[in-house]
Specification:
6-stranded mixed β-sheet; single chain; about 350 residues; about 25% strand; Rossmann fold; Dihydrodipicolinate Reductase, domain 2; alpha/beta; 2 domains; 7-stranded mixed β-sheet; 13 helices; binds L-homoserine
Length: about 350
């Protein structure tokens, strides 16, 4: 039967899921006309704000207006001052679980459990969280297949810029053997501000204020965020089974403000580069490190929060995709694109 209504539970209600609610609520009729389906938010759970579950749907204006205050969901009908992730994921009437909690780059939890509970209970998942992908990608993909549901994660690499589907679907069969990219918006934005004379500390604060940086921005500047993205992309492209132990990782913390300004004076730019290549014997070499690029290099002009990845393929040579790599609305768009993909799978 053709499905046009999706009940959705939001796990995590930070900037990204708030932006998603905003996108959905601006003009519901236009949304339905363009998408061909309706979205009904039935539950939200957040470690700081608490939780709310209304099987018939939550008023989106109330969600848009919810203050950022501890236990704020308790003020809504059916609201609770405590998060209730497990019960909502397993027992609510949601068809799709949107997981947008903070990435834990050491264990991947609790997001891995959120995805497991959802998929094992026959619910589709869209996540923007790098943890489940970097630590449990194969297990979760297998679980989704076994339960005949979708596991989508476009926002994990380059936020809303559709790089995973682009490489996986639109370049399929082109024999991609390498990718090289600027894959962290915060690091690129910070490098740009330091080139203009700001200190590292002020530049990082600015990235946090704009919503680009991770909750712990050391993941951005020490290269760990890029490392997780390299793992996700390599595994998606080549079924590579890469883990963190396989990726050499150095961040922009190894650069000084003087080094960055000197490079500009020499007509060069430092960029944090993530790359991986597939060798003839099938092995994968992957790394993250700052590189000094001269002005003619295609990635040297990628500025601010913009990211870019060049795929090198046997049939097409180099193909570069560039676009926003972070941001609340940009990442919320990635979730919307995942829901569109789920809708297309459900209705094949
Ligand atoms: N902190 C990340 C970045 C967010 O700056 O790129 C998007 O993954």
């Amino acid at each position: 039967m053709y499905k046009i209504n999706y009940n959705i539970a939001l796990i995590g209600f930070g900037g990204v899921n708030r932006a998603l609610v905003n996108i959905i609520s601006i003009n519901p009729e236009k949304f339905y006309r363009e998408m061909g389906f309706n979205i009904c938010i039935v539950a939200v759970s957040d470690i700081f704000l608490g939780s709310v579950y209304s099987p018939e749907g939550i008023d989106l204006d109330l969600l848009n207006e919810l203050p950022v205050a501890k236990g704020a969901f308790a003020s809504l009908r059916n609201g609770n001052a405590k998060a209730d992730n497990e019960d909502i994921i397993k027992n609510s009437n949601a068809d799709i679980i949107v997981e947008a909690t903070v990435t834990d780059s050491v264990t991947g939890q609790a997001a891995i459990s959120h995805c497991r509970w959802a998929l094992a209970n026959g619910k589709h998942v869209s996540t923007t969280n790098k943890g489940p992908l970097a630590f449990a990608e194969k297990e979760l993909i297998d679980l989704a297949l076994k339960n005949n549901v979708s596991f989508e994660y476009e926002g994990v690499v380059m936020s809303g810029t559709p790089v995973l589907r682009f490489a996986d679907k639109l370049m399929k069969g082109s024999e991609i053997n390498k990718f090289t990219g600027i894959m962290n918006g915060t690091a690129n934005y910070v490098l740009g501000l330091v080139e203009q004379g700001q200190t590292f500390t002020d530049a990082i604060t600015s990235a946090q204020q704009q919503g680009f940086a991770e909750a712990d921005p050391s993941a951005d500047v020490e290269g760990k965020d890029v490392m997780l993205k390299v793992i996700v992309l390599a595994n998606r492209l080549w079924d590579a089974n890469l883990t963190q132990d396989d990726v050499k990782c150095e961040g922009i913390t190894s650069l000084s403000e003087v080094m960055i300004k000197e490079a500009v004076a020499e007509g060069q730019h430092w960029k944090l580069i993530g790359e991986a290549s597939k060798k003839d014997d099938g092995s994968i070499i992957a790394s993250v490190s700052p590189k000094k690029l001269d002005l003619l290099h295609p990635l040297s002009g990628i500025n601010g929060v913009v990211n870019a990845i060049t795929f090198t393929s046997g049939m097409l040579g180099d193909v570069t995709i560039s676009g926003p790599g972070a941001g609340r609305t940009e990442t919320a768009y990635a979730i919307l694109s995942d829901i569109i993909a789920i809708h297309q799978h459900v209705n094949v």
